[in-house]
Amino acid sequence: MAEPARSPSKETRAHKSATEILESPDFKALVKKRWSVSMTLLVALFATYYGFILVIGLNKALVVQKVGEVTTLAIPLGIAVIVFAWLLTAFYVAWANKSYDPEVERLKGQIKP
Questions:
Q1: Which residues neighbour 104 within 8 Å (Cβ) at sequence distance 6 or greater?
Q2: pLDDT per residue over 48-88, tens digit each?
Q3: CA dihedral for 65, 67, 72, 78, sign (positive or negative)
Q4: Distance (Å, rounded) from C-alpha 99 to C-alpha 77?
Q5: Structural domain of residue 74, as residue ranges?
Q6: Whole-angstrom distance between the N-terminal and C-terminal Cα of the chain?
Q7: Looking at beta carbons, which pairs linking 59-63 to residues 24 or more positions away fall under 8 Å?
């Protein structure tokens, strides 16, 4: 028995060309959100790195203070800068996995096959 002709489903009608997706408000909002998250994290990272360098250059007396028997304050501060960079990376990965990647997949699903 032959299958009856089906009308196009909503999902089929929702398919768009890649150009339509790139010009859509959803895609533009996604790009804007990614840039704002990326730039915020970049500013935080630069402030941390350059802040550390400025403290070393401008307040040497602070960073040469002993913390323990042989360690100066510069060592834990440097480690803190590295750990902070890792935390920023972990935050970005978590954000991308939770928010960005699902939205990308949703938009990719709208492209015509």
A1: 30
A2: 999 999 999 999 999 999 988 899 999 999 999 999 999 99
A3: negative
A4: 32
A5: 18-105
A6: 29
A7: none
